[in-house]
Amino acid sequence: MALDRSSFIYRNGLSLALLALFVVSLAGQTWAGLRACNAELAEKGAQALTLAQYLASGHFVSATFENWESEFLQMGMYVLLTVVLRQRGSAESRPLDPAQEEQEIEPGATPWPVRRGGLWRAVYANSLSLTYLLLFLLTFAGHSYGSWKHENEQRLLEGEPGVAWSEHLGSAQFWFESMQNWQSEFLAVLSIVLLSIYLRQEDSPESKPVAAPHSQTGA
């Protein structure tokens, strides 16, 4: 049965589906992470963690924020790079010809910061990249804290002294955790930019029309 086009689910189906997938994936990560962490603790003769204890552990905090950090870096850089750079034939690029980008704006639909002008407009004009920058910095801080906490938890189990946060922040392990995620996120963006030149997905807004030539730039 087709959904009513005025219904909340029809109008917000994409975000609701993605939210559901996120919640299920996070729950799966938590379940698997708790089992993996407790298995490691059992090998070292330590007491198993409860779910609440695990959610506050460095193992969970580090793994979670490490991935969120790379996602926000990916999207923030993508937003900024697509402002000035183009890729001929890609559905993910703005058109090569600026004249193709002109769009009519409905009267009264202009957001209020634009109508207000001045500083409000300047901030609003860059609000997407600024928000991603803030999210990246917050998740970077969360990752560094969780990773540092996890290292000290492991050191405690092995009877070794803990390290300062600043020392952990400069360690190869911390940057290995970051870079392995960053490179995969940039690869994912590169893949859709290049693959959308030659490949199509019918009815997807991320793809060019099926009959569009490979040279067409923009969806």
Task: Return the average pLDDT rounded to an integer.
Answer: 89
Q: State Rg.
A: 23 Å
Terminal-residue CA separation? 30 Å
Element order, helices and strands? HHHHHHHHH
Task: Classify the beta-strand content into a percent band.
Answer: under 5%
Counted beta strands:
0
Which shape, going by the Cα principal axes? elongated
**Biggest sheet overview:** none
Low-confidence stretches: none
User: From the helix content, strand content and strand pairing, which structural class follows?
Assistant: mainly alpha
Number of helices: 9
Helix content: 55-70%
Features:
single chain; 219 residues; mainly alpha; 9 helices; elongated
What would you say this structure looks like, in words?
- By secondary structure, the protein is an all-alpha fold.
- The protein has 9 helices and no strands.
- Helix 4 (58-84) packs across helix 9.
